[in-house]
Amino acid sequence: MPLPEFSGNISDLGYEDRAFSVNDLTPPPSEADLVRERNAEMSGPPITLQPRRNSSVSGDDTSEGHSRSTGVATIEGNAWSMSNISRYVPLQGLDFLLPVDYVFIQQTIELLDLLSSVETENRYLVKTRSGETIFVAAEQSSQSQRQCCGASRAFNMRLFDLNRREALSFQRFLGTSLCCFPCCLQRLDIFVPGGRIVGRVQQEWTMMIPEFFIQDLNGQVVYRLQGPNVCGCFMFRDSDFKIMTKDGYTQIGTISHGWDDFLHAYTLSITFPPNATVELKAVLIGAAFLLQYLYFLRSKTKSWMRFCRVRC
Fold this sequence. Notes:
Largest sheet: 12 strands, antiparallel, barrel
Strand order of the largest sheet: 3-4-5-6-7-8-9-10-11-12-13-14
Shape: elongated
Strand content: 25-35%
Oligomer: single chain
Structural class: alpha+beta
């Protein structure tokens, strides 16, 4: 028996509804899938190269692969300065003394010293000729020696550079500053970080002219330091100590203590000998600190009294 012909639409058989019901079995995309698909369309192709600055457009002369350095103290010509140029080597420690031929030491005045007779640990600034600070010095000493021994006390002096790293340390031993006691002379050792000694300042016993030996790390005398023709007990506030050759005949530098009208205070200034190494410059700075404690420590309060008289 032949099948009857179907003249209607195929959709009447329910095939499309059946196909739609099968597609409904696939779950719809989640919100996370939609977000990932949207981000993929917006981000574009993957990044395979690190972006770099165009030096021809920005005017930056830094080479490719080298970052711009931060502001550090560097050597530029014959003087050190703060620079952002990466081709210079940053200074640290004794490197700050490389281009320097003159420094002066300024003591910071503690309020307790002005208002009372209690001796405190001293602080100093080591500056260049232009007034830039290269070292900050801090004394470490016992309170008992400060009260009983005064300026003759033993101490450790630590010097920090602009990078806040220790550059030098001075160790002074307990001794007397009177010219009538030849048995307990002054001595100061100079160290760099790590405990390595770079030199020593040794006092020589004399009756009238103060004299010191400047020794290197091997204990050899390199310079002689001679004071004015007066006993150390009666040292003048304005005094010049001559840095002499080791034979004592030729003057090649000076350590001076005098009044500074600009700072309104007494300062120690050092004119280094020509061709002096950074280690010997460090020893001469230690010698200046030793002279400060031996002869000029009491003048700090006098300087502020003088400043008050000038201001009035």
